[in-house]
Amino acid sequence: MFLVDSHCHLDSLDYQTLHTSVDDVVEKARARDVKFMLAVATTLPGYRAMADLIGPRPEVAFSCGVHPLNIEEGYDFEELRILAADSRVVAMGETGLDYFYQKEDFQLKLQQDSFRHHIRVGRELNKPVIVHTRDARQDTLDILREEQAGECGGVLHCFTEDKNTAKVLLDLGFYISFSGIVTFRNAEQLREAARYVPMDRLLIETDSPYLTPVPHRGKENQPSYVRDVAEYLAVVKGVSLDTLAVATTENFSRLFHIDSARLA
Ligand SMILES: [Zn+2]
Ligand SMILES: [Zn+2]
């Protein structure tokens, strides 16, 4: 069996007390059949540091981008394009809109401009976008449409929206990724959306070190726990764990243009 963690912040795990090294994290993941992970950047200096920390590894790919809540420090649009062109980078992001923590007009404008820029670079480089959205449903969908994001494709990561939003995203050609939130007791609406998303558009992720799934609540999240998301989601979808693993791995390979030989 082969599971992929399609979204983790490998540079932000606790390497002081929980893990001795990236090797340690990879080993713990492998012990639970999690054999590949996508390490997601949230700033450009962060991307550089993360690429140095992790180094070239067969089981880790990278995204490059600036998280909507990290825009205010400013960044060089051209630098993003240059860094994202690296062959180790398979996706743009995470990008998107987060109106939960930022509500000032100038902040929203900065987020929107940056989101549009990530999509444009994604289309230019043929690399899909990893989209984060919170309290910004309509603007997110509008920008994806206006910028023709379907051309490079992408994923709505850590999906917490409803079934109708899932439908619009699927119509745009997007994939939908579920995190540990789907295992939370009060997440029935989310499980309904998960039942709705077809198997060939489904991804799984940890978003570690955040959003630890049941039954590890209270501990820091890590890529090996994507297995718990997968086991739970398999029950929600009424399929075997193997079926879910095969589908989500194939989807990952297709979306991010990663040779399936690397995922076998
Ligand atoms: Zn996010
Ligand atoms: Zn994230």
From TrEMBL:
Pfam family, one: TatD_DNase
Signal peptide: none
Record InterPro entries: DNase_TatD-rel_CS, Metal_Hydrolase, TatD-like, TatD/YcfH-like
Keywords: Hydrolase, Metal-binding
CDD domains the UniProt entry points to: TatD_DNAse
One annotated GO molecular function: hydrolase activity
Similarity comment: Belongs to the metallo-dependent hydrolases superfamily. TatD-type hydrolase family.
Protein name from the UniProt record: Metal-dependent hydrolase
Source taxonomy: Bacteria, Pseudomonadati, Pseudomonadota, Gammaproteobacteria, Enterobacterales
